[in-house]
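assembly run, all chains below
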Amino acid sequence: MDSATSELPGFTPLGRDSANGLKIVIVGGFGVGKTTLVRSVSEIRPLNTEEVMTQAGVGIDETAGVATTKTTTTVAFDFGRISLNDRMVLYLFGAPGQERFWFLWDRLFAGTLGAVVLVDTRRMSDSWYAIDRLEHRGTPFVVAVNRFDDDPSVYSLTEIRQALALDPHVPLVQCDARIRSSGKHVLLSLADHLHALATARETTP
Amino acid sequence: MTRRPVDTGDPERLYTVTGGRSRADDDSCDLVTLIVSECEPSPAMQSEHVRILELCRAPTAVVEISAAVRLPVTVVRILLCDLLATGRVTARHPPVARFRGSLPDSDLLKEVLDGLRNL
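ok done. output:
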């Protein structure tokens, strides 16, 4: 059979009635376990693609007052998928958290339900920018601490909340991104949080 | 997982695929917009269009098409514009497209919650 799908091991088509594509973005510093988390909960092997970005030189000092320059950058990102029911399918995007990828965030975050900030306690400062950015955008999020076996410091969640200067209403959970049930728990924390926010908004006159 | 570069540093190849265009006419296709074929590919079609029509026999998200045909999302959007304009594919747009700073309604989020609980 010469169909395109047969060339793609691991490509699993969605059901016929799938109609509602939803997304959640997982952000965090390099090596924090974003793809591991996506893999542990995704029904497909995580896939990787690229977006070619043409951006005007906005916010770059050297171009201020000069004719706008354009740069083209290619950004790679990973994603996975969870079919929630016959009609709804949830895509999980692993987004690079570094500041230089801020323009990718805007595109990924358009229409996202919410975000998971994945934290490595050995490099907590990597998460500050992500949290700041999400708060600024008004994107609801939860913070998940990925516990690494070789992490000698066992900070409590209270200490981590303080270190991240996290708002009291933002859920903070710990996880092992390699384990499916643990990854599922993280996503449920976010979905619970979103549902509670929406319910509160709807019942507020 | 092995990463193979999609953009091989050969812009001519991508321009050929898109007929010289570097951006889609409209930005209506989200990464998670689901695309469905409405016809079978014909021999006269450009090979990328053929592959998209084959893939999208079942609903397929823009981002999955991009990964499957190994072309950047930007290029896939341009190809989809052609197919959408001629009715060869249809698009099922996300229910919460491009909202900012607001949430979808609680009924939709309840469905998400139930779906995740059943994993």
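The domain at 11-117 of chain B is CATH 1.10.10 (Arc Repressor Mutant, subunit A).

The mean pLDDT of chain B is 84.

not gonna interpret more than that til we talk
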